[in-house]
UniProtKB/TrEMBL annotation, chains A, B:
The lineage of its organism: Eukaryota, Fungi, Dikarya, Ascomycota, Pezizomycotina. This is Peptidase M20 dimerisation domain-containing protein. One of its GO terms (molecular function) is hydrolase activity, acting on carbon-nitrogen (but not peptide) bonds, in linear amidines. Residues 240-335 form the Peptidase M20 dimerisation domain. It holds the Pfam family Peptidase_M20. Keywords: Hydrolase. It comes from Coniochaeta pulveracea. PANTHER family: ALLANTOATE AMIDOHYDROLASE, ALLANTOATE DEIMINASE-RELATED.
Length: 458, 458
């Protein structure tokens, strides 16, 4: 049906011809595993591809994956733009000049992450470009694929920081000056420079406008798998805040310092972490500590200083605020010698410790755009032909779509992942489900492209 | 009174002449601060000497301090022997050949330690050698100063490990293979070799016998200062055990993993640490966590693995055992989803975590030798001339005297330290108190030397 040298306009295809466009599952999976040679992580199975990923943002391996992204999309006819946050926009021209309809996600991973979180979304976008090329198709408006920088927040501790700068919700200066989790000497700017991805185009939606943003992602939770469904039509993203908590007491000898004379920052931090769980559970929210460092770090020295991360989440902004407020009050009381955590906890010391809060990330709850949600729902229906396999859901994780949605119509597509496990080397989504997700992504973009054209004509 | 070229026998001195021997306070303090140029730590005051120390065992700065020790004691007429654990014995000949009466302590420090813990004891021993040389005195039997390796257990996680090998209570192989706290690649043996202190003499009391061991040390606790006393006559050392606790759960996403699906190693570790405090308090024992590491260490990943140190102490061996037994039981129960720690703690997850214990150090309670205790008490009485300034005490910290006491009569001398603070850069003992302690050490050694001669004559 789609032959010849001159490009064929998607507008000239019948609805059935358009619907019949399919992704190539093997090509998609081969591409995914090909780029996972850069930053291969912990092995968990005997198959070649049964390893996790460890590709921290702006590392050498991230640079290798980025180089592949640029080369591949250029060879597929895209023009590629790198902005001042290293966000990379690969744009395939359409029949009319206008901002592109984009598929976006990220190539960076957690230190012990998997092969799908972020990576699937980028590769699905590239598979879309390949399908358009296979069929020599020209869309109404440009379409593109965006690789956003440091989505994970694992190396530089603001997640989605680079889409946040693009949306003008985070300042370029703050982002460029971000240091590494755990205290390395590099900053985002120095690493962008080092790997050659400090672009000259301003990181802003004004310089690089996007008409709409679609993101395919693994669910990272257990619902689709449990309900034997294939596609989640994501309505929005829950709210979250990240904090760094510093507890300051006094270094002292573990053998000669009676409990009454201690200001034990580790004991206090332990109580605060346990208490954050208590309070979050009461509010049906989530609280988690993923990073903790202490000093000086000697078996027989009571730590004088402990620093830990606190991640609070809830679908409702006000609940995140309520948990934070309660914890600010209770942490101060516990550190001052009270036992707001557990009335039976022995009050062994009258020494007061200091607790200091730094807010690192604030991501308010997001509702995605009805047009994009509708495009995804329609695409899922046509790909699967069975409404029972599709459900609406809310994302527990943040995604670049959160910030994209501040500046353009946006929504997301979820596919199941095994046991709901993510941020873990064993993260896994079947080739079949990857392909279904990529096909829904492609059709969502094409439907949105047609919607734009229809509206233009009116 | 003590002039002339030929050495004067201490046996030929009257009791009053012997008692009148004094240390040189300025020389002692100058020597201490001179060697503190190697491994100078955090500054806490404006005076030159108002810094802490950071001289980890077998580091480059430890080598520099050791080289000074060897050179200085040789120049004071000592023969110097280095054993296979880097223990360094500086021995000044006496009138008769026999094992030496020794002053021993250590030159290594905590990562954020002070200028007195260990260092004072070594320098007081050297000051004794200088006083004997000033007065051209010859003791009945050899006297010596011993620098024991890695007393702190801060770099290689068995405290007093090298005196333990000398006492044949710890195997040379286990000690040589000890790796660094926090996971460096060096071992004790590789570092001994690297800095040139892997001696050829076996590390054993059989190869290097000692007749008696005296150790001057800062109290590291608040009692002498609070009671306005000057000398503690140490009766013994409380029992302690060190453990490494490994908690294993599962890495997962903080935003998408409901509490019910988590196996959160950090939350569990926090509860275990808080609980160790509860149980220790109930037994009037001590429990402390000075080291904690987790993986993977990302704000939005629930840690799958946490490792922490646990230090349990009590003057009574059975109490340490009881606290350990209770914690082994309760830790397992908490990690399996129970709430032995706090009946009101929300039981949010049914996932079981694994808790694994490794015993790193066992130091049973010690009673020092009556002869040595008597020598210290008599020396303190003659130096201070006021019994009200002297008290008996038990050491909360371990010392090389614990292992020395297994193989020869041993006791210790404590001097006050400011606010009872130790393992802290601000650790401080006044020059006056350092000198009093050094003088009591010298007279304890000389009294014991005379006691040996008296017994020999009988
Ligand atoms: N999808 C994902 O893991 N994003 C990172 C931001 C977050 O922690 O939710
Ligand atoms: N004195 C001293 O700090 N020794 C180290 C062993 C211990 O922790 O008690």
């Amino acid at each position: 049906a789609f032959q010849g040298k001159a490009q064929i306009s998607t507008a000239s295809l019948s609805e059935d011809e358009l619907k019949s466009l399919q992704v190539d599952r093997n090509r998609l999976m081969n591409d995914i595993h090909h780029t996972c040679q850069w930053g291969t992580g912990k092995r968990w199975g005997s198959q070649t591809t049964e390893t996790g990923m460890s590709r921290l943002a702006l590392s050498d391996t991230d640079k290798q994956a980025r180089d592949w992204f640029v080369q591949t999309t250029k060879s597929l006819g895209c023009s590629v733009t790198v902005d001042a946050m290293g966000n990379t926009f690969a744009i395939r021209p359409g029949r009319h000049e206008a901002p592109p309809t984009c598929a976006g996600s990220h190539l960076d991973t957690q230190p012990t992450g998997g092969r799908y979180d972020g990576i699937l979304g980028i590769h699905a976008g590239i598979e879309m470009l390949k399908v358009l090329q296979d069929h020599n198709l020209e869309t109404e408006y440009p379409v593109g694929v965006v690789n956003w920088t440091n989505e994970e927040g694992a190396r530089f501790p603001i997640s989605m920081v680079a889409s946040g700068v693009w949306a003008e919700e985070i300042s370029l200066e703050r982002a460029h000056n971000l240091g590494e989790v755990g205290g390395g000497t590099a900053t985002m700017k120095s690493e962008l420079e080092r790997i050659g991805y400090l672009g000259s185009v301003p990181a802003s939606h004004r310089s690089m406008p996007i008409a709409a943003h679609f993101e395919l992602h693994i669910e990272q939770g257990p619902i689709l798998e449990a309900e034997k469904q294939k596609i989640g039509v994501v309505q929005g993203v829950q709210a979250y805040k990240w904090f760094t908590i510093d507890v300051a007491g006094r270094d002292a000898h573990t053998g000669t310092t009676p409990f009454s004379a201690r200001a034990d920052a580790m004991l206090t931090a332990a109580r605060l972490i346990a208490h954050s769980h208590r309070v979050a559970a009461k509010h049906s929210a989530l609280a988690s500590t993923g990073v903790l460092t202490l000093s000086p770090g000697s078996v027989n020295t009571i730590p004088g200083n402990v620093r830990f991360s606190l991640d609070i989440r809830s679908p409702v902004d006000a609940t995140v605020e309520a948990v934070e407020a309660q914890l600010r009050k209770d942490f101060a009381a516990i550190a001052s010698g009270g036992n707001a955590d557990d009335p039976s906890f022995p009050q062994t010391s009258k020494h007061k410790l200091a607790v200091d809060w730094t807010t690192d990330t604030t991501s308010a709850a997001v509702n995605f755009h009805p047009d994009c949600i509708a495009a995804v729902r329609a695409a899922a229906g046509s790909v699967l032909g069975d409404e029972g396999l599709v459900r609406d859901m809310v994302s527990g994780a943040g995604h670049d779509s959160v910030y994209a949605s501040r500046r353009c119509p946006t929504s997301m597509i979820f596919v199941p992942c095994r046991n709901g496990v993510s941020h873990n080397p064993e993260e896994h989504t079947s080739p079949e489900d990857c392909a279904i997700g990529a096909e829904v992504l492609m059709h969502s973009v094409l439907r949105y492209d047609q919607l734009r054209a229809q509206r233009e004509r009116r």
